[in-house]
Amino acid sequence: MTFYTDAGSTVGASLAAGSGTLASLSDRNAKTAIVPVDDDAVLDKIDALPISRWSYKSEHGVRHVGPMAQDFYVAFKVGEDDRHITSIDEDGVALAAIKALHARVGTLGTENAQLRSANAGLHGRVAALETAQRARATAASTRSSRRCAPKSSVATRCPERGRRTTARARAGVRDSRRGRRTTRGSWRGW
Length: 190
Hints:
Layout: E1 2-4, E2 12-15, E3 22-24, H1 39-48, E4 52-54, E5 64-66, H2 69-76, H3 87-147, E6 156-158, E7 163-165, H4 167-170
Antiparallel strand pairs: 1-2, 2-3, 4-5, 6-7
């Protein structure tokens, strides 16, 4: 069944046998003044468009979700007036917004991949620096322990400390006769 809305029977909607949905005419050959839509601008307008839950005054207990026709008309300037929203206009706005979101998600995916790659590179550099630092610390510790290792109780020169030491001093034992700390932790004087 087809419903025509013009005298020439060229514009309207059809209801296919067994269907519960009206199909609006959307043939390119039936259209004029075709202008591309700025998908991002449509998405920004949707962001500002109030969406509400509401009921018609004549419908008790039935709820709907959607914008008010006045707000929709101000945002998009489509349709015959500011009291009605056609499904073809709502569908077109939704599809433009979906395209804008798809483009933004693609851009974010590319940026995310670049940031992950840069982050992995930084993690590699940090790991290399930490490994080098540990190697330098280990080498310095090895050199220091070789130079000042206790070999006997004979006084030797410790280049690390720049003074003469004994094996007891290198081991941390202090001479109690000079008022220095002993291994027991007490202070003794002369």
